[in-house]
Amino acid sequence: MLVHFGGQERSVAQFERLAETHGLVLDSVTEVADERCVLEFRKHPI
């Protein structure tokens, strides 16, 4: 698990594109607080 606070603000679509370049796909998004959410990624099926 990777937790990151601070840094550059990104949209879910931007995270999807960033992850895709590293062989990951977005599996789910869970809102946990105001303007905070958990993004779950998994390896892209080959």
Automatic annotation (TrEMBL):
<protein>
    <recommendedName>
        <fullName>O-methyltransferase</fullName>
    </recommendedName>
</protein>
<dbReference type="InterPro" id="IPR029063">
    <property type="entry name" value="SAM-dependent_MTases_sf"/>
</dbReference>
